[in-house]
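Hi all, long-time lurker, first post. I run a small reading group and we've been trying to get comfortable going from sequence to structure in the token notation. Rather than ask abstract questions, I figured I'd post a concrete chain and ask someone more experienced to write out its structure so we can walk through it together at our next meeting. Sequence below, copied exactly:
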Amino acid sequence: MKPEFVTDLVTKELIGSKYAELTQAFIYSSAILRRTIWVPVGFVCDYESIPLFKATSKRAGVTSAPG
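-- Answer (accepted) --
Happy to help. Here is the structure in token form:
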């Protein structure tokens, strides 16, 4: 399995906050997990995967969110 972002990250910013909501499903194919990660429409995030490295990758922040 090749690691890749299958879809584009499409979000809308939630006014008055640091959060954004997915307006389109976001899909990532993980070689490490040997599976596809599917993040549904309506998922709310702040784009951060590892707070120490703030804003290094919006797409990584969405796919590594807990839950």
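A couple of things your group might point at:
The helical segments are 58-63.
The CA atoms of residues 3 and 30 lie 5 Å apart.
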